[in-house]
Amino acid sequence: MKKKLIITESQLQRLKVTLTENNAHAIMVKRIKEDLDTNYEPVEKFVKEGGEYSSVPMFMIKIDEEVITSEKLFEYLKTKHKVSNEFLGQVIKDWVDKKISDDYSLSKNIPLN
Question: Where are the domains of the chain?
Answer without folding.
Answer: 9-96
